[in-house]
Amino acid sequence: MKHNINVIHEVIPLSDKDCFHIVDRHKTEFTYPIHSHEEFELNFVAHAPGVKRIVGDSREVIGEYDLVLIGGRDLEHVWEQHECVAKDIREITIQFSADLFSAAFLEKIQFHTIRKMLLNAKKGIAFPMPAILNVYHLLDTLASKEGFDAFLIFFQILNQLSLYNDEAKLLSSSSFAKIDVQSDSRRIRKTQKFINEHWREEIRLEQLANLVGMTPPAFSRFFKLSTGKTLSNYIIDIRLGNASRLLVDTTMSISEVCYESGFNNLSNFNRIFKNKKECSPKEFRENYRKTKVVI
Predict the structure, then answer these.
(1) For residue 173, what pLDDT is reported?
(2) Which terminal residue of the chain has fewer beta carbons within 10 Å of its beta carbon, N or C?
(3) Pairing of strands 125-126, 65-70
(4) Is there a contact between 10 and 49 (Cβ–Cβ < 8 Å)?
(5) Which of the following CATH numbers is that of domain 178-286: 3.40.640.10, 3.40.50.2000, 3.30.710.10, 1.10.10.60?
(6) Considering the domain 8-172 in this protein, what is its CATH number?
(7) What average pLDDT does this structure show over 261-274?
(8) What is the DSSP letter of 38?
(9) How far is CA 132 from CA 66, 69, 145, 223, in A?
(10) What confidence score (pLDDT) does residue 61 get?
(11) At what angle do helices 231-249 and 266-277 cross, to 10 degrees?
């Protein structure tokens, strides 16, 4: 497999003695290329409608306000100028290390919503407008604070945002972000394990229903209720996530990516990809080929 390394791995100016690093700036355009880093990043953008936000294999045009939490080395992201014509864009970026939170600390009852949010951040989280309005005044003043006061505001922001876990939107697919999804249901976990091991092959509803001891109609309803997706859409999303990762990480042809990702028809692959991603596989790849690596 040929690798096409074309994404910047950013080195964050965060020292071991800092809880977080914050940059509050006004700008006229977005110029930074697609990149990734190990640290968590909370990025707030104001007055930049028309900017295209890319997080993993998610591509969306943002409105007047955008607030996203990203975590994980394998989650590439960028804000592109796209159709934005604004001349006074405000961007507040807060970056912090995962080492800030020990496992024992996050296991405390008082931090269960923050723990869930940080786990979800591995796929990228876009917060709804009520959440943005709820923390805007905290974001607005954080850069001017120092010491313990800044620390308290920072934790207030995380806590307030974690209250919107159910309303927030997860951006990247799990397969693109290279993370495992763990369900509370034993049957769903067993199903997901089977799919993760066999997604390149044909998977039939009857197979999975037998695997967990249910009839196909009952399993189909149970799976949709548990995951929010039909079985076919769930499998397609996994295949597309892996296809997107191959488009980014390798120089395989579109046809090779198609068959390597479990699709058995190139035209069908192109159609499904464009329907789900709103761009062709070729266009998706080109978005990740704009810069050379800087390490």
Answers:
(1) 87
(2) C
(3) antiparallel
(4) no
(5) 1.10.10.60
(6) 2.60.120.10
(7) 94
(8) S
(9) 8, 12, 20, 32
(10) 94
(11) 90
pLDDT surpassing 80 at residue 249: yes
Q: How many CA atoms lie within 13 A of 282 on its CB side?
A: 5
Would you say how long the chain is, in residues?
295
pTM above 0.90, yes or no: no
CA 60 – CA 140 distance, rounded (Å): 25
Check if the beta carbon of residue 211 is closer than 8 Å to that of residue 188.
no
Dist CA 77 CA 51 (whole Å): 13
Rg of the Cα atoms in the chain: 20
Q: Are 75 and 172 in contact (CB under 8 A)?
A: yes
Token pair in block for residue 3 = 């690798």
> In Å, what is the CA distance from 286 to each residue of 7, 15, 247, 280, 282?
12, 34, 9, 10, 6
- Residue partners of 37: CB distance under 8 A and separation at least 6: 9, 10, 11, 12, 73, 95
| Backbone CA torsion sign across 22, 26, 32, 35 | positive
